[in-house]
Amino acid sequence: MILYKQSVKYLSLRGSLLLALLWLVNMYAAPAFGAADSSLTSSMPLKSGWTVQSDCKIHGDGAKLSTPSAQTEGWYSATVPATVLAVQVAAGEFKDIFVGTNLRSIPGTSYPQGENFSNLDMPADSPYRCGWWYRKAFSVSAMERGKTFWIRFGGIKYRADVWLNGQKIADSTQVQGAYRTYEFNVTKALRPGKENVLAVETFAPTPTDLGINWVDWNPCPPDKDMGLWGPVTLITSGPVVVRSPMATTHFPDESLKAAELTVRAEVSNTTDHPTKGRLEGTAAGIVISQPVMLDAGETKTITFAPENFSQLRITSPRVWWPADVGAHPLETLTLRFVQDGSVSDEQSIRFGIREVTSELTAKGYRLFRVNQHPILIRGAGWTQDMLLRQQPERLADEFHMVHDMHLNTIRLEGKMETDEFFRLADEQGMMVMAGWCCCDHWEHWNKWTPETLDVATASLRSQIRRIRSHPSLIAWLNGSDNPPPADVESAYLKVLAENYWPNAILSSATATPTTVTGQSGVKMTGPYDFVAPSYWLVDSHYGGAHGFNTETSPGPAIPSLESLKKMLPADHQWPRDAVWGYHAGGEGFQNLNAFNDAMNATYGEAQTQERYNQVAQSMAFDGERAMFEAYGRNKYTSTGVIQWMLNNAWPSSIWHLYDYYLDAGGGYYGTKKACELLHVQYSYDDHSVYVVNSVFVASPGLTAVVHVYDLGLRELFTKSSSVDAGPDSAVKAIDIPQEIFQPESGTYFVQLELKNAKSAIVSRNFYWVPGKLTEFDWAKTDYTHTPAKTFEDMTTLGTLPAAHIAATAHTSGNLIHVSLSNPSKALAFQIAAELEDQHGAKLPQTIWTDNYIELMPGEERELTASIPSDTVASASPKEVAEWKVKIEGWNTTAVTIPSRPIK
Prior knowledge:
The chain is α+β, with helices and mostly antiparallel strands. It has 5 domains: 44-230, Jelly Rolls; 239-349, Immunoglobulins (Immunoglobulin-like), CATH 2.60.40; 355-520, TIM Barrel (Alpha-Beta Barrel); 680-798, Immunoglobulin-like; 806-901, Immunoglobulins (Immunoglobulin-like).
């Protein structure tokens, strides 16, 4: 009734109480889906009860398969969305396909290891060269007669023939394109009151199709993700339908005290005669309405602009902000088409009152502004599951981890995520950059035909209409590794303009200019493989902290020992072998040689799996911290950085901030450290200490403190300095004298603290720094990385004297509180905490407030871990009581302590 009261209030102000009462009758008198005289749009997901089979086995006829008498004994049972291989895996036909090289045992996976399967033909013996049928029977109430029925497909890969009740609805010349959505009017074929049967024969993409590919990130499944990978829905409406409503915002000035909303939607007349009615509704509680005339079969975009609807100029708006810099409230837009007092169709979305713009700085770098405020993009590249399985609970967990690291942006390269993904991004203020993928037919423009361009533009139209209303979206990239040629870019820009894309548009993720849009203002110079931490500040030509780097990384990310046990057979976990390589990347990333060479030279060769993993986690911590810190210190000379990548499509040893099992390792905590909102950090290039404030509120009265020690903990330098950190600022606080760091003297420790006006520590940081930094061989830079001429040498860290850690832990709900102290006289180096179950196995998704820390002699620290609620709920009280916390460092004996519940 709140909606009713608000609507009547606004309508009475305009003298339209009668309209309010008519609308109220329509809203509350309309019965639900399947009942008599329903006047509102209804939808019924066609999710469960599907059967799936290969046409090679049944040689099916769509006209017969789409009738109730068709026999499906021996078919796979399925829930849609699901690719063909996902159906087979769910049925148990193929087991543990992500373990070791088991994926290669599936028929059709004989393509050369490490190559991009998207660019290759299906092997001759592949079972996926045939079409695969999806069949679903469903019923519709007889009382639904007289309505208009639609079947909507959210994603089909790649081609399909669609049949309903013996009638062909569409064929594979009409249905082609992995990123297209389809909505078919099936009114004439549907049979209310009887059983209906839908049969869809799907076909895998060829090398000259615009499919979904996995580039060099991971192997491609042998079915190339063919099938119904998006949801299928039955929709009812009246004869005029409303589609793709959107609301955009413009702020007249930077005070944000006023906002101008523009509302749009498409309306379509499905009849063979002209019709008229009204498009009406509310946007953020504001009532809007206008008459609409439609010719037979006509589709129009209807606009409500503030120039014509003054009520769309609003004061004191609830402004949507990105994560960590403000709230992200969402408003509701509801539009309905009314004919003769009856609602023909209605659509509702949520939107945010916010405005995104971008510009080139004086140095030609792409700078984003949200609500007229500049913002440093700190994000990472996203991937879906390799079988495109939709897992809402996992998705929510991943968003939680992204926020915990204080990243503010996710980049989608050709992975057009689910509606649930965008809902979470909107609600949680996570910005999203989306666009097409590289490295297959999407960028083989010299091989395109006119039909290819038609599919590409239709795909773009589908996705833009789907995502354009989401406040989380800030940019669309028309290319990734290369910009499209002029004719293709122009065609894309036309689609974007016709569909009122309200955000930034980039020609590609690279610095290559185009004749159509000029400079992109971004770069994609790598690195993607290991570079020493100093790289990000000393580089001035490639991937260092200048400009906007759309994808880059310090390279491999070795999973935890527990995760390695899950992804590798026992006889392949150590020493490293070709199976490890299979779980690296493809093409130029099929091994970990650059990373391993750097480890051996810098820290000494690891003789055991445990030591290798320990050093690898510290290298990932150090590398990710250095990258994000460099971009933070140099803002807004640096305007954005996208870590490549955030996650993996399957268990992998490269390019993630948390592994496939959602286990957070060194790279995760290094990123979390670097991106904390008020942060003190060290600079490798000039030995300065900076304070970085990443929020839009000043933080005055701070004190930065630095201590520099040699390997034996002899203090070489100390200083404190008062700092006022302005909003969204990077302020130099202290210069450490250059002469302290002697090239021949091995390793130094730099300890930093940042205290607030009450002397409480709000940020702390600890670095191990070589006397002589890595010397890079810039002339040998390639797309993977810049190799080292000479590595930095910190092998002396292996000679640290033994330290002892004392610890206690207690449990409170889903939190574990750990008290640590170092009673010894030696530094406790890279101390990592993990929670173990009653069998001694590490519990994944346990997120600590801090990890991979150092404790000076006599120092005490408190760490807290958050355990997923479902993990706690699924364990018995006895099991929870047996959970333990393991504490281990480079030079400490592992300590395992019970976690006692608070009484």
